[in-house]
Amino acid sequence: MGVASIILPTRASTSLKGMTPGATELTVICGASALDNALVSMITPAFDAQFWSDNDLDHNGYIDEREWQFYQARNASENCLVAIRGGGRGDVTKSRVLWRYRKAIPNTSSPLLYRGTLYLIRDGIFSSIDPETGEPLKVARLTGALGNYWSSPVAADGKIFVTSEEGKIVTLNADPQWGIVSITNLEEEIFATPAIVDGRIYVRTRAALYCFARKPK
Ligand SMILES: [Ca+2]
Question: How many domains does the chain divide into?
């Protein structure tokens, strides 16, 4: 067994809870002389349970080379929305990328393109974006329905529907200068994207499947 230090990427040192502010090194025990092939056990109690659950992918209590590389790649990756013109061949980074947008990017929710405007939901922040230029048109909080949003926005009949983890269904008017039409609170966790079929909206919560429709006249 040998002892070595890993130089942490700058972003990691600032984003990991429990680390000494500004710390950039982590002492490790190596199972082999070459770190590249080492099974690495961290002896500095600097990382919290979240770090282990996120990065010890095989749950064996060690961070091995593959897991460390995965961790580094994930931290180095850029979280942004990219518009890419179709077509082209080979590396089209310079020739086909039209724009990038970096603010309030969702973790799991897909963007919605509806009636010529692009919409995003992230933690209760709703954004409308010009799909031609990537310029934000309106970015604002969904007052009364903040929180986590894992599902994707859907649209029909000139309206947009988003559902929060807390169980709120927010109806917005589909417009670049969108506004909230109504908020319905089901008080049950929602992770699934609603489905719209034949004029009805189906919303699945942790406890039930709901169907919403106009009252028959
Ligand atoms: Ca492991």
Answer: 2
3 state DSSP class of 72: helix
Instruction: Using the mean position of ligand 1's atoms as its centre, give its distance from the Cα of residue 68 in Å.
Output: 9
Residue type, 54: D
CA of 45 to the centre of ligand 1 (A): 16
Range of the domain at 15: 2-76
Instruction: Name residue 139's amino acid.
Output: V
Q: How do the pLDDT tens digits run along the chain, 217 residues long?
A: 344 444 444 333 333 333 344 444 454 444 433 343 333 444 344 556 777 788 888 888 777 888 888 888 888 877 889 999 988 899 988 899 999 999 999 989 999 999 999 999 999 999 999 999 999 999 999 999 999 999 999 999 999 999 999 999 999 999 999 999 999 999 999 999 999 999 999 999 999 999 999 888 8
Q: Which residues contact 91 (CB under 8 A, 6 or more apart)?
A: none
- Spacing, Cα 105 to ligand 1 middle (Å): 29
- CATH of residue 128: 2.40.128.630
Q: What is the DSSP letter of 76?
A: H
How far away, in angstroms, is 41 Cα from ligand 1 center? 9
